[in-house]
Amino acid sequence: MSTKAFYPISEIGKDKVGFSKTRSIIEAAFYGNNVVKVETLKEAYNLAKNSPGTIVTDMPVKDGETFGLPKDAKVLLFNDGAVTGRYAAARRIKGEPGVDEAKLDKVVMDAVYKTRWKKMYHATCFVGLDPEFMAKAHLLIPEGEENLLYNWMINFQYMSDEYVKMYGKSLPIGNGNEPDIYIFSDPQWAPVEAPDVDYSCLSDPLTLCYFDTNQNCAAILGMKYFGEHKKGTLTMAWALANRNGYAACHGGQKEYTLADGSKFVASVYGLSGSGKSTLTHAKHGGKYPITVLHDDAFIINTDTCSSVALEPTYFDKTADYPTGCPDNEYLLSAQNCSATMDEDGKIQLVTEDIRNGNGRAIKSKLWSPNRVDKIDAPVNAIFWIMKDPTIPPVVKLKGAALASVMGATLATKTSTAERVAAGTDLNALRIVPYANPFRTYPLVNDYEKFKKLVEEKNVDCYIVNTGDFMGKKVKPADTLGILETIVEGKANFEKWGNFEDIEIMYDWSGKTGDFTPDLNDASYMAALKSAMQNRVDAVEGFATKKEGYDKLPDEALAALKKLVSEC
After folding, report:
1. pLDDT tens digits for range 162-187
2. Architecture, CATH, for domain 9-55+62-73+80-245
3. 467: closest CA among 397, 499, 515?
4. What does the pLDDT look like over 224-248, one tens digit per residue?
5. DSSP 290-307
6. What predicted TM-score, i.e. pTM, was given to this entire model?
7. Could you tell me which CATH class the domain 247-302+380-520 is placed in?
8. Above 50 in pLDDT, residue 425?
9. Got the DSSP string for 116-173?
């Protein structure tokens, strides 16, 4: 068994694995006499279909029986209200400086107590799709939230006979000392004055995502958006993987098979809307056989460099798939979209972002016929996707410290998948380490994992800019051409200006314009220097914020300061 679900009497008790205070509060709720276990996807579908407010479209689920759904299953639409994105500000991580776990535990304790008056649903899924890494995850959620339950079960791997057998043969994670993942969720929760409950520990007054990732448990309170439940679950799995020798990856990975039979495995990292999904699924005109691991969540074994996908389906923005798009044939469910009636009187999804800026759908893995759950071939290259207008469409990084710290200072723009404070400039660049805002452990853990891949496993590292370069739009054809040129071994990288550890490629397949940096342009050089200094400032900030919780090794800061001096 990959994670631990059952304990001998001798292993139960204080200070033993799986028995922290927070976990004891959360896990006990799963055994209440008000809890109903939902064993199958068919059960979950029928609950969601009949839940108040659900829109049952006339769009059939393609091959629904393949996924354990009724033969006549339809795409279900459910809309959350005003909140249609993730809210990072609500996250509180046990063990971080300034996080009052004693007060937070009482908030969760009281929230669990109040659900005694509600029917609660308990669902179980697998996170990780190969015997090398499979964790069992449990979700507890109240009646009225059946669509969240259903979406969670179809997003992750439901307990089909095939995967139950696979899990039984899977390797124990952490020598059998890692307990199952338990997530308690009450989207209906709101803070109410109660004895011994102090809400000053919340970072947001109305919502809470509280993680005790060392004990594989979490509480999600007052949050209706499915993305919180998806990423909350992945947060737990990434932390679990990180503790056990894996690099946690918020990105996409694909394997190319070249004419000579050799393999090239590329990993791309970026936030939602950066182009990571487009790059991951691009077929390159059929030039080479391609297999796709996933476009959002996977892990890399830092010893073998093989990779494992964490979820089977895709949680995509529907704005990219207008009504009538052939890809919509593979939808399983939708959230925060509109609906209308077609000329035949049938209910159809309105998938473009007319209602709000982050309409979403879960697509089945059938959408990508070249999907695999594991890539055994070692990863060859890492691509940090940045929307930084000072960086050319592609540069190559030399040196493991620079390669890793550039990932730690990945610069990008805010996505509509995120809920941000009023007045936030969505076009302003911000630093999101490794394009993963869901990390719950010290940043140095990720830094060392990616550094190891470059330094010990000879993985090449690049930055690709998918935004614009000094006012010139970098088109998808450029980025795809860059990938093809590198994959085919035709890339010619040269020294870039005064930079000792950055190389540039001037020509690539399908190039759409001249992106040559003008190193004699004082305004450009000033902008480039400022962009590099911003990264220096970010790393220096890591060393002081949260009492230095995310401090990186001195070598990381030195690598960035060297770039600034070379501008």
Report:
1. 999 999 999 899 988 899 999 999 99
2. 3-Layer(aba) Sandwich (3.40)
3. 515
4. 999 999 999 999 999 999 999 999 9
5. EEEEESSEEEEETTT--E
6. 0.94
7. alpha beta
8. no
9. GGS-EEEEEEEEEEETTEEEEEEEEEETT-HHHHHHHHHHSEE--HHHHHHHHTSPPG
